[in-house]
Write a structure and sequence with these properties.
alpha/beta, TIM Barrel, eight-stranded parallel barrel
């Protein structure tokens, strides 16, 4: 696993050199164009967001619906929201389309859709069921007008090896991204509790899936520190594959996260996307303060 990132970097550099040589021969203005494209790639465009999961207690007690969640996004002056599917009333024709219409009328973007599909399944017969579930939510993601679907790897079952679990995830991610790519949807694997809780594993999966429609939904709080890589280093390692980000104020061990440091890392990587707050507060009255901090950092580090 130590050589995989290096190999990727070599291939990226070699491919860029070949491309540069070819374009210089065919286009006199190519070097200027390449510099312009390089500058665009380095330009960060970071937007504020919030995951519906943050308000799970309100959804569960019926005091909030996805319709009123969209209205709350307007009140909080958010750029977009992540539509967690647990709180959808269904997938019937009309319901999903109405959510899309409400988002449009209120000027609220959908940064993505988040489902709970877990790809680590020791029973081979269950894997096609998981793929079918992911495809179902890809279709819903397309209908609602979002560009991204979050999925989980899952927890390692007893009696299995990590290598087996990674292979199962790779196989399902390949099939899922093949399906989603035809619909313009990117699949984001979250570094969630379980198999995908280390950068090394996430990167191995991405290298093996090798799809432009597969990436990492980076939750900045979940990476488990190792003797050679702290959480910040693992976030940085995964940034080339970042499709979406979930933000909290603290790591899983309870220690605070230096959000300013994290935002600078994303900005330096030229990240273009949402930083969506996914809080653990029991009281929704605590959410606006966290959103305000996200918005401050977006303004500080983004070009928009």
């Amino acid at each position: 696993m130590k050589n995989r990132v290096g190999r990727r970097q070599f291939l990226k550099a070699a491919g860029g050199a070949v491309l540069a040589g070819a374009t210089r021969v065919s286009l006199g203005q190519a070097p200027v164009q390449q510099r312009a494209m390089s500058q665009i790639a380095k330009t960060a465009r970071i937007f504020s967001g919030c995951c519906a999961y943050t308000y799970r207690h309100a959804f569960e007690d019926g005091s909030l619906t996805l319709e009123t969640f969209i209205q709350k996004a307007v009140q909080l002056r958010l750029d977009g929201v992540d539509m967690t599917v647990y709180y959808m009333k269904g997938t019937d024709a009309g319901y999903i389309e109405n959510l899309r219409y409400l988002g449009y009328k209120n000027g609220v973007g959908f940064s993505g859709v988040a489902c709970g599909s877990s790809m680590v399944q020791a029973e081979a017969a269950k894997r096609p069921e998981v793929l079918a579930d992911i495809k179902k939510w890809v279709d819903v993601t397309q209908r609602i007008g979002a560009p991204h679907l979050r999925v989980f790897a899952g927890k390692q079952p007893a009696g299995t090896t990590m290598a087996q679990c990674v292979s199962w995830v790779v196989d399902l991610m390949k099939a899922a991204s093949d399906y989603s790519g035809k619909r313009g949807i990117t699949i984001g694997l979250e570094d969630h509790v379980g198999v995908s809780q280390s950068a090394d594993v996430c990167l191995e999966i991405m290298h093996r899936v090798n799809s432009e429609f597969a990436g990492i939904n980076i939750d900045i709080s979940h990476f488990v520190p190792t003797p050679t890589q702290d959480s910040y280093s693992q976030i940085a390692a995964c940034l080339p594959y970042a499709t979406h980000a979930h933000v909290r104020a603290g790591f899983d061990d309870g220690s605070p996260i230096d959000l300013d440091r994290v935002w600078k890392m994303f900005a330096d990587a030229g990240y273009k996307g949402y930083m969506s707050y996914e809080g653990e507060e029991k009281s929704i009255s605590d959410v606006p303060q966290q959103i305000t901090e996200i918005q401050r950092l977006c303004k500080k580090y983004s070009s928009v």
